[in-house]
Amino acid sequence: MKENKDEIPEIESFNMSELDVSGLDTRLELTTLMPEVMTPDCGPSFLCSCFAHG
Amino acid sequence: MTVLLQIMPKPEPPDHEPANQGLAESGGGELRTSSYIIYVDLPQNDSDMLIVHGYTGAFDKVSRRVATFLRAKEDRRAPKPLYGDWAPSPEPAEAADLPERYEQVLLQRGYLTHLSREQELQRFRLLADEIHAQAQAPSYVLMPTYDCNLRCFYCFQDHMRTNPDFSYLLKRMTHPMVDRIFDAMPNIEANHGISPEDGYLRPITLFGGEPLLRENRDLIEHILQRARQGGTQSCSVVTNGTDLDAYADLLGPGGLAALQITLDGVPVEHDQRRVYPDGRGSFDRIARNITLALDRDATVSVRLNIDRNNIGDLPSLAQVFVGHGWDERPRFRAYATVLVAANDKTDRRTTFSSWELDQELAKLQAEHPGMAVIEPKDSDIRRRARSVFGGAHASLQTTFCSAHSGMYVIDRFGDMYACWERTGNSKTRIGRINPDSSVEVNEPYSALWRGRSVTSNPVCRQCRYALYCGGGCAVHAEGRKGTLDANYCDGYAFRFRAMVAEAYSEYLSGAMTGDPRQHDDASIMMMNL
To answer: What is the pTM of this model?
Structure first.
């Protein structure tokens, strides 16, 4: 956890400590901030609410 | 599947990106709170709360003062808390109380913005569309047959086995059709920009009907053989588990490695629900086969279809799992999900919504610690949040499932569908595989399925939860609203906040590393094969 206690004790960041979207103006720059993109697979590990089957 | 986005080169100047003009933060409009903040209040904590950003993926703990500051700058109605009350209502004057250095951090993490509401919506759309375009790797679900040896009353495919008009569906896939399908896979992958030289390992799942009927043994061996020729060593299977003993030597890594098997209660209840055509129950046979699969090092994910009639069984069922020793097996997991009224044999009044089920499970877990062996379906949200509290990036998804990205469900006729809930009717196929293994795409229908994302309907693209929820199940949405391209929320806002708060509580108590049953992302990837 990044603890901003020196400057801002009321905000503690858990992830993406280098995140700064305050100056972004294009979609491509923004996507570089998102290295983890999920596409859930429809397989046995997908805890889905699909219709029950027999 | 998790797709790692590449770091992209800095784009050309704005005259090459006309759609993005006017999105700059600096020199923009009045400072306001982002439209995509999720406020996660914590039970029995009046001093702090969590805030989660809907598209930057930031997770932070803030004081109530900071949260109140943000809520005061919301230009739309702030959501109601999950626990207790937020009182008093924030006054605009409170916004002036926060030091400037706080504002700067909140700006950097996306919680504050100079973008107008419309500009931020445009940013969200551009970002989500970019992600969606890159998360399209193909996966395959092969349906060796629509036939099944059980007659569960709630099955969404019940009509296929009970209505003679559909009897033509019940023949099994032939070996030449298997060859035709595998020969077509490079053509499908070419449409996704993947060439044979890329060495793409195809995720392959078997589904049905019941794919592992005893009489399908030769066919399944042939599918595995063809999969291996393409580099895929293992397949996953959604199976009822009744005939697994016929596949004993194929179970485990290098074969049928991951299985989803359904149990619907303690033996006496299960045997009322999951029955053979002559009315016999199936619990004992399935239980023996689960142990067999675990002995062969296969991963077994037991699905429990829960309604108001069998939820009371869960504490006893957990004891059954313990009695079989499954709770000690690292490759065993069990999860409860809602039983869906998919046909007129199921009384909707007996069913739960997903949020109702989560709440009922939480009550049972509190009363019966042994229930820990049974996860709620939403434990996936909790697991992902726990990894974020450990410093990981949030996992964002633009779709509810891979029906809207790269999944191909292929049946014995060579018909391709986007979703296994919509199979068996060639009018709804997204394409077909021709005898020469060329691939014919039904463009309008394919575009309808593949184009559905959190930006394709106006409700989702303005929703702060969209990139965590993915828009919900399209089939459910169609059932409610008459179109696939609609939202299906299913109480997601409640479920997300409850699970994130629970994950935070576990994080504080140090439970993140203490429970071997808590699968991390790496093990999920392994299970996806």
So the answer is: 0.88
